[in-house]
Amino acid sequence: MKGWLLGLYAIGWMSPASAAGDWQFAGHAESEAAPACDVQIQGDVFESAGTDIQLVCDATHSYIGNLQLTLPARALQQRRVMLVAELRSDDSLLVNVSLKTLRDRTLMVEDDTEQTLLGSDAADGWQLRQLSLPVDVDAAQLRVGVLLQGHGKLSLRNVRLVVSQPGPSSEAAVTYLDHVLVLLKQQTADRHDLRWRVLEPQMRVLASGAQTTDEVYPAIRYALAMLGDQRNMLLTPQLVQALHVSASNEAGNTRRLALSDGAQLVLAPLPPTRTAQNASSSITKALP
Q1: Residue 108: pLDDT band by 50, 70, 90 thresholds?
Q2: Of 36, 107, 160, 176, most Cβ neighbours within 10 A?
Q3: Where are the beta strands (DSSP E) in the chain?
Q4: Is 93 a residue whose pLDDT tops 70?
């Protein structure tokens, strides 16, 4: 979307999109008397300079809003899309940036919660955000979202989408995914409701084209979500280092499995039919 889009949007009402790919802002304030937020957008996310966004909400009222860009995913299917942006906001404004693929529902999502926690800064107080997702053949839409809560000013600059060219995964990425699959299959051996003949090909499709181990993370997170327990998670190497956790730091029967790049799989307690001792033995055998 090119040129400046200037909108004084009524709170509680979504700005109309004139065509697919337009940014939309929707939100509401704590008071009906609150003035609308002022949104200014310039540029194109597919150009090298990206998009610049400024959003200002009145400082005397609290707001909840969502700024989003929705794009058709057909031309992006079976490719990897990276969202790159820099943001700066007032301390009174909480901001969460996300990248999603959708088809009637959310298929996959990555957000900047971890990057916010780690405090990834660019120059002059700007915070760098990088989110990456594979776009599978079932995806109908790709959505960039900026969720905000509070009041004050939010600025984003150089917001752009980088689309990878289709190609095979690197040997390192394939080996990494193979190892994760071995661990997950061993740790879910008693789960008769899991269909690995279906889940494993889905993971491989989601990891297709990955060149680095971190590009395999979305496929791993998808598998963990399919296990059906919200306590399952993947800790990136940066988060492991920041939290000073190790594979031996277990809470109760929760298992932390160290991966080759420093990341950790955190898995919920084993079912009663399997002991922690047996699990420990199988983990040791699976580690390279």
Answers
A1: confident
A2: 176
A3: 4-8, 23-29, 38-43, 51-57, 63-72, 79-89, 93-102, 106-111, 127-135, 141-150, 152-163, 233-235, 255-258, 264-267
A4: yes
CA dist., res. 243 & res. 266, Å (int) = 14
Residue 53, CB half-sphere, CA atoms under 13 Å: how many?
26
Q: Would you say 247 and 258 are in contact if contact means Cβ atoms under 8 Å apart?
A: yes
CA dihedral 218, 223, 228, 232 (to 10 degrees): -70
CB 109 within 8 A of CB 99: yes
How many whole angstroms separate alpha carbon 152 and alpha carbon 246? 39
At 288 the pLDDT is 40
Helical packing angle, 171-187 and 217-226, nearest 10°: 20
Q: Regarding beta strands 51-57 and 38-43, do their DSSP bridges make them parallel or antiparallel, or are they unpaired? A: antiparallel
All residues at 6 or more sequence positions from 166 whose CB lies less than 8 Å from its CB, including other chains = 78, 79, 209
- The confidence score (pLDDT) of residue 246 equals 64
Half-sphere exposure of 240 (CA within 13 A, CB side): 20
d(CA 178, CA 184): 10
